[in-house]
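## retry 2 of 3
previous attempt timed out at serialization; input unchanged, resubmitting
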Amino acid sequence: MKYCPQCQADIEIRIIDGEERKACAVSCGFVFWDNPTPVVAVVVETPEGVVLAHNKLWPPGMFSIITGFLERGETPEICALRETEEELGLSATGATFIGFELFDGKGVNGHDYNQLIIGFHVKAQGAITLDQNELDSYKIIPTEKLRGWNTATGKIVERWLAQR
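## retry succeeded, writing output
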């Protein structure tokens, strides 16, 4: 961010509340707080196991649980149910809170992320129909063979497995 979105003046770095923040150079009041974006991650359990999907933008062979941005006016529980239906075509019930993780760093695509990952578990049924705009493949891992991995979503999986 180079210019203030409110008055178009230059942006400068200022110390605000003890932190370096991007702020308007002419003091119109704008401060870029860089708060984390809420993202819901869903452990989708079917009778066969947990669904992991591959996003078209990821390297081959990389799979994860379903994720999606929380919409304005939407609760995280409703988001978990909506994302399950939108991305997998499955009907889900009973979104149960697992926990949260911070994702603060570089993603596999090189983008810088600052997200609060809010984990839920749902039980789902139906035939999987992938959202062709985002996903290109999936696999179902039997629950007894599922293991977490070293990312925010993998830690959500680990929490869910530990809570079972």
